Amino acid sequence: MSGQRAVFPPPPDTARLTYVWAAPLVALGFVALIQLPVLLIVFVGIAAGGVLTGGEATPDLMFWPLAAGIAVGFGFLILVTVFWLRGFERRSVRTAGWTGPNSFGRYVRGLAAGLMIAAVMIGVDAAMAPDEAGALIEGLSLMAGSPGWLVILAALAVMFAIQSGAEEFTFRGWMLSAIAARRGAAMAIIISSITFALAHVHYVLLAPMAGLVAIAGVGFVGTAFAFYAIREGSVIGVAGAHAAYNFSLVVAVIAGLAARSEGSNPAAVSVEAFMEATQVEAFEPSMAISAGLLALIALGIALIGRRKAPAG
User: How far is the C-alpha of 77 from the C-alpha of 170, rounded, in Å?
Assistant: First the structure.
């Protein structure tokens, strides 16, 4: 290993970095492991809701167990990654990018960056489907004036903050830094981005070809976030960007459905929208355009310039 190659504060000489070939297997193993608490909380919550209401588990009963399960599951991912860093690799979270001055400011800037990227993606979709753009605006207006919707949106914001922070800490924090210290930043960006894309392999279940395009888009997102993290020498800002990006895209889907199903239960609409946003059923031209845009965004972030991580 080489501290000169480190993208964040370099690990100590006593650190035992994960081998390059093993890092993707470990990362995907972590992702598989956290499905257990997610599924447990979701199933138990839905079952309990059905018992309490004396009926079947309807979509409106699914939202809170789903949100809680995702938040707890990805919180567990953070703990597992910290355990691996401290217990196996013998290094601190600082060496995995959880560091930097003005952390709050970094996170807020990241939120703004994520919102801008999401706005570009949503704008492209809206330009290709004007009717959907109208539904989006109508749905956002409807949601802004409803206390019930505001509670749902607050819960989604917390859930995505945890989920995105965990993914950034694991893929752009631990994994990127471990590989970079051994083989350099370029190799680390490539391997971590491909692994991040493979962690979303569920996209290919319903429509394999369309799913592959979606996975490619995820890989480009991972590449953009990797360049962002390296440029800042920290994953705190990119955790904010990731959270805002995911939150905005899902809320856009929710708003469209809310406009078409006015008067429906906000929790039920949110569950339907979440399922729609995380599944790919058929190929659409906008998917290829979105993937291409994400590739350009990644290239743009790379060209902005990268700041070398501080030593020590």
Answer: 8
Report the Cα 125 to chain-centroid distance in Å.
20
State the residue for tokens 């800042």. Answer: 232
pTM given for the model:
0.91
What's the rounded Cα separation, in Å, for the pair 205 and 202?
5
Nearest to 152 by CA among 27, 40, 66, 76: 66
- Those residues whose C-beta lies under 8 Å from the C-beta of residue 145, and which sit 6 or more positions away, are none
C-alpha Rg value of the chain to the nearest Å: 20
Residue 88, classed as helix, strand or coil, is helix
The answer to whether the CB of 95 falls within 8 A of the CB of 177 is yes
CA 260, 265, 266, 268: dihedral to nearest 10 degrees?
A: -90
Q: How do residues 3-50 score in pLDDT, each as one tens digit?
A: 557 899 999 999 999 999 999 999 999 999 999 999 899 888 777 766
54 sits in the region (left: phi over 0; alpha: psi -120 to 50; else beta) called: left
| Per-residue exposure over 213-245, b if at least 16 CB sit within 10 Å of its own CB, e if not | bbbbbbbbbbbbbbbbbbbbbbbbbbbbbbbbb
Backbone angles phi, psi at 16, to 5 degrees: -120, 85
